Amino acid sequence: KESQRLTPEFVKIKDEQINRVKAILTPEQIPEYEKLLVEREQRQREKEAQELKILQDELARKQREREKRQ
């Protein structure tokens, strides 16, 4: 999912947005904002990993059901 979203255009827009936000922050606020960005990306990766696990589990369950019917 993440790799699908990170097209060059998406990355450019995301970077521009981050730079616009940083431009209005004080120097003291920038490290906190960068920390927030890292935490957000980590949560997104965790969410995507969880979604992938759910899909894999569902696929395995359907495969077991097919095998039982044969």
Describe the overall structure.
The protein is elongated. The mean pLDDT is 92. The chain is mainly α. The two termini are 34 Å apart. 89% of the residues lie in helices and 0% in strands. It is built from 3 helices and no strands.
List the helices and strands and how they pair.
Layout: H1 2-5, H2 8-24, H3 29-69
Mean of residue pLDDT?
92
Shape: elongated
Alpha carbon gyration radius: 19 Å
Class from helix and strand fractions: mainly alpha
| Content of β-strand | under 5%
Residue share in helices? Answer: over 70%
The biggest sheet amounts to: none
Distance linking N and C termini: 34 Å
Instruction: Compute the number of strand runs.
Output: 0
What are the secondary-structure elements, in order, as H or E? HHH
Count of helices?
3
What does the oligomeric state look like here? single chain
The parts where pLDDT drops under 50 for at least 5 residues are: none
Features:
elongated; 70 residues; mainly alpha; 3 helices
Brief account:
The chain contains three helices and no strands. It is an all-alpha fold.
